[in-house]
Amino acid sequence: MKRQMIGLLTVLVSLSACKKDIENEKPIDIQRGDNVEIIEECYAVYSQKDTVFLHLKIANKQQISGTLQYKFYEKDRNGGTFKGIIKGDSLIANYTFISEGKTSSRELVFLKKGDAYLEGYGEIVDNNRGKVTFKNHKELQFDNSMLLSKTDCE
Question: Is the separation of the CB atoms in 91 and 112 below 8 Å?
């Protein structure tokens, strides 16, 4: 129980750093004793040489946090944490990761498709202060070649 509360507090504090549309969501008020349901789910894609692993913690079916690991053949590993929200069939989050020894931050958008997720790609905007976001969510492309299927959490 303590572990879930600490995790939820981390989600709530981090949500304040997300985009405006994320900030407008109603936060869960732990002080009032709201019932908080936390669900853990994992998704992955494994190819002959590449692996992507997504570990989600979902609070009350709308607020999310977790980890994301990219392991591409002959490329530096890229892994980190994210925090955000679920809007309809989309997961929208701020992803902070380490790649080539450097910490960076970028927006993530995943589209839920049955028991799987597809990562969105599109034109980005860099604010030159370490924050990269998508220019327009409506123009994102979702590539079926990297379908992250539900799997057991490690």
Answer: yes
Predicted confidence (pLDDT) per residue in 54-106, tens digit? 999 999 889 999 999 999 887 878 899 999 999 999 999 999 998 888 888 99
- Euclidean distance between CA atoms 152 and 138, whole angstroms: 31
Confidence (pLDDT) at 143: 80
Q: What's the rounded Cα separation, in Å, for the pair 51 and 53?
A: 7
Model's pTM, two decimal places?
0.73
pLDDT the model gives residue 82: 97
Do 133 and 113 touch, CB atoms closer than 8 A? no
- Angle (CA) 40 45 49, round 5°: 140
Can you point out the beta strands (E) in the chain? Answer: 38-46, 51-59, 63-71, 78-87, 90-99, 102-113, 116-121, 124-126, 131-134, 141-142, 148-151
Locate 106 and state its tokens. 């970028």
Q: What is the SS3 assignment for 135?
A: coil
